[in-house]
Amino acid sequence: MRDRSLPPFWQTYEPNGDCRRSSVEAFVETVEDANWYRKKNLLALRKCEGAEDLVDDISRCSAARPCRRILCPPCARLYRIWFAQQTLRWFRHSKQRPLTSLTLVVRLKQASNRDLPKISIARVHGRFRKRMRRAGIFRVIGGTEASYNELDGMWTVHVHLLLFGADPIAIADFASKCTKDGISRAVSKPQEVNDPIKQITYLQKFGTFYRAGAFDSRGKGRAYPMRPAQIAALASWTDSYEFEDFLFLAGFRRYADRIVPTEISRAARMRRVENSSRGMSGIATTWLRDEALSARAAKTCRRPAFALLSAQQ
Ligand SMILES: [Zn+2]
Predict the structure, then answer these.
(1) Would 308 be classed as within a structural domain?
(2) Ligand 1 mean position to 240 CA, how many Å?
């Protein structure tokens, strides 16, 4: 049982201030926006049968006593800031190596309003992580979302990922495995990270609208608030989850309020060597954690937490 008397980990801040926070805040919703979305969500949720407790929690939410509900925009905002700060930290670290980082969207599961609540995030993540590892993708940070498509009335549970140092062969191998799931456009085209804060803050969102109609210049339809049946499905699905359950990690783990790298197994490294000998790009892609540095870095955030070694070493 989690201790609810303590503030959630995503609400704790750097004791000496963190320069990443203000740059991240510029790309997420403002406090005013979050409060406006809260009103919208409450309006929709009040029409849903069985959502009384959720409405009550979100209505009472405050900075002193955050409700921690997924459909509470002020809480979601703080979690998104935490997520982006941590991801940005490792992105900047990887740039010093240098490693090529790419963003990727992967569609994992589709479900109707009735079936969405039956989808287990942990199970979907577990299967997905295994598939990535088999393809040779080891270091990933991402966020999980469910989007609603009005045309077919279906939800798509998908992940927005930041891949650290993944090579094109591994991504192509992974994508070909995903096509077997039968989901259309299962894996998007990988995108280079040219606008890090904007792209990293986009990895995890908790939207309560859907897009429809003609595409705009960004290839997106207009946003509409969800109807009661949709928000009821989303509320039912998210009800048992904490924000961190939406966090997808491979080659990293969450340690209190930090995301820290984990050691990549020898078997996985060997697979990487095999790939290299098949003519992969020569980018060093195996990160080994230095335990002592990592522990210190978890406290100071100033030093690199692990050493990057080439696969051949
Ligand atoms: Zn809240």
Answers:
(1) no
(2) 15
Full-model pTM: 0.83
> Has residue 164 been placed in a domain?
yes
Please choose, from the candidates 164, 98, 104, 160, the residue with its C-alpha nearest in 3D space to the C-alpha of residue 137.
Answer: 164
CB 284 within 8 A of CB 308: yes
What is the Å distance from ligand 1's center to 214 Cα? 33
Q: From the CA of 96, how far away is ligand 1's center (Å)?
A: 37
Total of domains in the chain: 1
Distance (angstroms) between ligand 1 centre and the Cα of 131 equals 34
Task: Report if residue 195 sits inside a domain.
Answer: yes
User: Could you give the count of Cα atoms lying within 13 Å of 82 in the half-sphere of its Cβ?
Assistant: 21
Q: Is residue 275 part of a domain?
A: no
The pLDDT tens digits for 126-139 are 999 999 999 999 99
The domain in which residue 116 lies consists of 15-259
CA of 10 to the centre of ligand 1 (A): 12
pLDDT by residue (tens digit) across 155-200? 999 999 999 988 889 999 999 989 888 887 899 999 999 999 999 9
